[in-house]
Amino acid sequence: MTKTLRFAFAAPLALALAACGSGAEQSGEIQGDAIAAIPAPAGSEWRTTAVMTEEGGTLVGNPDAPLKLVEYGSLTCPTCARFSMEGGEPLLEYVDSGVVSFELRQFAVHGPLDLLLQRMTQCGPVEAVIPLSDQVWANYETIMQPIQANQAAFEAAMQRPMEERFVVAAEQMGYLDFFAARGISEDQGRQCLADVGALEDMANYTQRYSSEFDITGTPTFELNGNKVDANTWGALEPILQRAGAR
């Protein structure tokens, strides 16, 4: 196992959620007048415009938006799930204006389980990454129940050869079926979860977010490169509005 994957696997499987809901406390608020809407190219919507970024995230919206919102989020984090459910659609309305772009950077708080789910959300087209992540969060209890009920089986799967362990775990926990019902076929899922290089890349990004960007908990939000003191939609929306989003 490589050093970065050992780093990711060092995260506890007890799912204590200590790092979840403990986002940044510093405030980097921007104050400004209302920014005029920026139309999407003819025949398209900003919310369906998606690209992978150099920082390993998925960005939706106008890539040149004056307000660039980044979320460091974990698919196993209940606070992230709450934000998705409360703020997902309202945030996309701001994205549709062309004034705000949204980038999700997935952060593996709980090591192998996060990596498995991340890989499955990234197994289809880039436009599907955030919708699939929202599906995981919308079904948070369904996703977490199998591993909470049978953690020993998950840990046993993690002892198998690297190219097998995530496939076996996904099969035993029912995750292949979950994603198959949402457009990622079982064969496609198996192939993605056997891709050790892709898993290592994801582990590298989590390590980079932690060491280089000082991300210590999820969800953490940045607006134009500055951390903001918010981890709920109710706290974040006024910050966007004060920055010029209307």
Automatic annotation (TrEMBL):
Residues 1-24 form the signal peptide. Gene3D superfamilies: 1.10.40.110, Glutaredoxin (3.40.30.10). Residues 55-240 form the Thioredoxin-like fold domain. One of its GO terms (molecular function) is isomerase activity. InterPro entries: Thioredoxin-like_fold, Thioredoxin-like_sf. Keywords: Isomerase, Signal. The keyword Isomerase applies. It holds the Pfam family Thioredoxin_4. This is Protein-disulfide isomerase. It comes from Qipengyuania citrea LAMA 915.
